[in-house]
Amino acid sequence: MPLYDCMLLLKPHVRKEASMELVSRVGKHVYTKNGVVADMKSFGTVQLGYGIKKLDGKYYQAQLMQMTMMAPPSINSEMLRYLNKEDRLLRWLLVKHRDIKYGLEFLSEDDAKNELNRFKSNLYDYDNTDEDEDDEDEDDEYQPETKHA
User: Which pTM was predicted?
Assistant: First the structure.
């Protein structure tokens, strides 16, 4: 099952109990589809870049929440029907995590050791022979001229 992030923008006046009730209902919905909620974050009230117009007014602030979950790919269409009916939400977005690896996870164990050793050898075994040869040529170019009387 792929990993998803569900970003929820709730109206700013929604109480914490009501927002947690909404999140728990979404979590139960994911659970009924054999999914698992892995993480839940609340970012509090955020300022929006532009106003979002709803039937009861225009909103310039919202409560931002993020749910990380593992669910079957069919969850997108089911969340569409489920969350679009919710009047406490301003916007919602479902983002699928890709199989991206960063840093040393990207390399195999042997490759990672070789990569680190190569970096270490380049860092400490710096050779100045090429620059010394260039410096000799430059010294001739910039010699002060002597005046002959």
Answer: 0.63
